[in-house]
Each structure stands twice: as C-alpha cells, then as structure tokens.
Amino acid sequence: MNEKNKFDYVLLGRVLAMAKPYRRVFAFTGVLAVVLAPLVILRPYLIKVMVDDYIFNYDIAGMTRVALIIVGVVALQVLLRYLFIYNAAWLGQTVIRDLRTQVFRHITRLRLTYFDTTPIGTSTTRTINDIETINSVFSEGVITIMADLITLFAVLGIMFYTSWQLTLVCLTVVPFLMIATYIFKEKVKVSYQKVRNEISKMNAFLQERITGMRIVQIFNSERREGEKFRTINRKYTQANLDAILYYAVFFPVVEIIMAAALGLMVWWGARGVISAEVTLGTLVAFPIYLSMFFRPIRLLADKFNTLQMGLVAAERVFNLLDRKTMIADVGERSAENIEGRVEFKAVSFAYTEVDYVLRDLSFQIQAGETLAIVGSTGSGKSTIINILSRFYEIQKGEILVDGINIRDYQLASLRQHIAVVLQDVFLFSGTVLDNITLRDTSISRERVIEAAKMIGAHAFIEKLPGGYDYEVKERGLTLSMGQRQLISFVRALVFDPKILILDEATSSIDPESEAVIQYAIERLIEKRTSIIVAHRLSTIRHAENIMVLDKGKVVEYGPHEQLLQLEQGHYRELYEMQFLSTEMS
Ligand SMILES: Nc1ncnc2c1ncn2[C@@H]1O[C@H](COP(=O)(O)OP(=O)(O)OP(=O)(O)O)[C@@H](O)[C@H]1O
Ligand SMILES: [Mg+2]
After folding, report:
1. Which domains does the chain have, with CATH numbers?
2. Model pTM?
C-alpha cells in the first residue's frame, strides 16, 4: 500500500488537468463556490441587523424589508447551491467517464506479458473501483474543500467584524478542535486503507471461486470455501466498523467542543449585553456563525480524507497508464498482398528473461502449404503461435513473412491477414453472429452463413434457438466444446486470412464430432498457408510437412511417410504411442 504522508500536489495537478476540456464548467463551479460563501453568512448578518436596527426600534416596515431580503437571499442561495452541486458532480462524472475509456483503450493495447502477471481483478479494479474513487476528487474534493475554506474565512471575517472580543472567546476552543480533527483524520485514513485492502481480497476470492465453481463443487469443498469466505467477510466487516467507530467518537467530540464554545460565548456575551458592549442582535447571530464555523471544520477532515483516497486511486490508475509496454508498432508495410511464405531463422524466445522456451529454431513453410507441429506437452508448440502473431517479442533471430521481417509490417495489417484459432476457444457474451464477426460491420451476415456452410457449422448453428442470433452466455459454457470450436473456425474463415494458425484442442472428442471438426479443418486450410499444432493423426495426414518439437528444439522435420521411416525417431514413437492408440479407441 502506498501510504503517503505528504500531500502530492503534482499528482493533484495531473488529476485536475483531466478537466481541461471542461475548463469552463470547472471555472463556473469555482466561481459559484466563491459566491456562495458570502451568501451563506449574509443571512445571520441580516438577522442581526433586523434585531438591532428594526425590532428594537419598532420599525415594522424596515423589518419587513429585511425579511424580504432574507427570503431573496435564501432563494438565490438555493438556486446557486443547486447549480453548484450539479455542476461539480457533472464535472466529476464526465472526467471519470473519459478516464475509463482511456484506461480501457490502454489495457487493450498492452503486451500479453502484462496479463500473464497481473490478476484479472487488478485490471478491473483499475477501470472501475479506482476510477470511481477519483470522481470524489472533483465532486467532493478540490472544489468543495475550497468552498468550505472560503466559507470558513468568510464566517471568521464577519465574526471579527461583528465582535472581535466574542470571536476571540469562541476561538479559545480551536486548539482542542484541531487536535481532535488531526487524530480523527489519521485514524480514518488508516482504517479506510484497511477497508480497501479487505474488499480487494474479498473481490479476488469471490471472482476466483465463481470462475472455478465446478472444481469447488466436484471436490465437495463448498464448506471449506465457505469457512474461508466467512473469515474474509468478518475481517471486512471489522475494518468497516473500525472506520465507523472513529466517526462515532469524532462527531460527538466536536459537538462537545462546539457546546463549550457556545457556553463561553453566551457567558461572555451576556455580560457584554448587560454592560452594553455587545448588542442583542450579535448575541442572536453568533450561535449561527458558530455552527457555520464548526460545520465545515467537521466536514473538512472527512473531505480531506476523501481527496487523499482519490489521489491514491489516481496514482494507481496513472501508473497503469504510464506503462508503455505495448508491442512496438513501427512497421510500415501492408500485409495486404502477401503470398504467405513463413520462415523462422534461428529464433530463440523466452517468456521471462532467462528461461528459453524456444532455442535456435529454424524452419520454412512455402505459401499454401501446411505444416503440422507435434511434440510433447510443454515443448513450445503454442509458443510458436504466440510469437508468429506477435503476442510476444522474440529475443533472438528473425521471423519472416514473404521474406520480410514481421516487425516491418504494420501490426494491424499483419494480424488482419493471419487468423489464429487458439487452443482454448474463447467466446464473448453476445450473439453467435457477433462472436464470428467480432462486431466488424464490414462482414455481412451472408458472408458468415456462407463460411459456416462451407465449414459444416451451419447445420448446428441453425438448430440453436435463434440461430445466428443465439445469445452466447458466459464464455459460451452453454455450448459444447466441439460447437465452440466450430464457431471459432468460422470466425477465422470469414476474415479469409492468407495464413492460418490453428492450435488444436488437446481434449479428445467423440468420433462423430471428430469427423465434423476434421472436415472443417480441411476446408479451413485449403488454399492458404497453415500452421497447425496437431494432436490428432487425421489432421497431421493433411500436412505437407511435420515438425517434431522437443524442449523448444526441432528434432525432426519432413513428410509423414519419411519421418515414419526413421529408426527410433521421435515421430515414430509418438505415432505409435499416441496416435495409433487414439485411432483404435
Ligand atoms: N505466458 C507464459 N509465461 C511464461 N511461461 C509460459 C507462458 N506460456 C507458456 N509458458 C511456458 O513455455 C513452455 C512451452 O509452453 P507451450 O504452451 O508452448 O507448450 P505446448 O507445446 O503448447 O504444450 P501443450 O501441448 O500442452 O499445449 C512451457 O514450459 C510453459 O511453462
Ligand atoms: Mg499448447
């Protein structure tokens, strides 16, 4: 936790700078704050005038006049306060709306490495909770604090003007007030940080359990998870109660201090009235001044905390925004007219600086050909796909498409002509159609249906309630694995890529679906360069070449028949152990 004792003005400046496009509203709100402060103190002053100058002079007409002015002042105050509250809130909401969009855009451009190491919960917290907290910097923070301070000084000014002796008497309690406020502020800050910690723990716990509910239920661990949740929940409640405790103590304490000030004032004031040093009107107006003086002080401590929490949140969001870990997109070439020749030249790659997953990897695929990659689990098959689509940057060597380094292509253009079907299919909530086009409006419904027919997915999609408009729920869990895979195939096909990369699902499926998937894959790889991480013999048989990978190195390369000839070859071993057995079962 970043616990700063010093107030960070640079950070505050950066937060306020976000309101730049709305500087007029900001200025207007500021002006309202400045105007409202003297208006607030005008009322008690007018009451004093009414008491001193008219009531005791039996001037009914004058009294009515002042009463009408008071009504006018109150009406004006109501109007201005409405404008102030609304504008301040509007400003905060608008700024955080912009910020949310900015953060989301930023996150979607970050390198995958970021997501490998950052929990999902953190990214969502940054875009939602933290930004929500920043809102308070505007709606309750800077401007209202400014308004409160102005009010405070205005009240103090009029108090001195009305009677400096009485004011000094009242101010004797201020040191006590300051001590109480300071203690309160510090305690609340700490306890709120605790609350935030506990809530993020609770979020993370909940998110993970809900995602992994199948595991929780199948292993009968509901009770254990329930116990754990109860513990977290208890801590969270306690943290909240601790925070509330400070309020419960602080507010009455301020109440007592204020009563003391009032008592002192009445005691001193009454003597003053008797000796005619203090007017009766002053004695009537002063209690109002006093409450006006104490109210902002009480709130200020609280608001200052809110402001500080907003800044802590802002710092976290800015840290994320300042993270410049994007994949460098400096290439200028368009991949529009590529043929689809792919070459790896001595490529070495590590996810984390030291552990090389691929070592000195070289191979070549001619345009239109199919390469099947096989190898044991963890040998680096999916990794090849990750680096070819530039999800990660390689450390050594070169990856060439049509003889040109992939870094020299525009990233978007390159990705447009390389379609990837990942090992585990991911579907978004939305219709089947949306999941295929990914909301790209240039792809017509007809095109989607055509592609689905070609692949052999049309029949099953049509049978879904609503057909292509069937609403996919949470990650597509209401569809079978095979169905999800077919949808992802159609997704790849509608983009008509020059290069197709397919990471076959590891899980085996029934023979009937197998045939459907097989047919789909054959259609998919027709007429284009294809790289398939293959787990099934039927797929491999269609490949011109097979690359056998072991611990990030190519150990065998060549056509099926040729590799089978190799005595004690890896491929032959794999073939006999894995593919033959699955074929027979
Ligand atoms: N995002 C990642 N960050 C760090 N290491 C990773 C990451 N993804 C994979 N690895 C590591 O890289 C190695 C190769 O993983 P890869 O996913 O390429 O295997 P694979 O050949 O596709 O295996 P499988 O057949 O099980 O899919 C593994 O040792 C794995 O631990
Ligand atoms: Mg894999």
Report:
1. 10-322 (1.20.1560.10), 330-415+542-585 (3.40.50.300)
2. 0.72
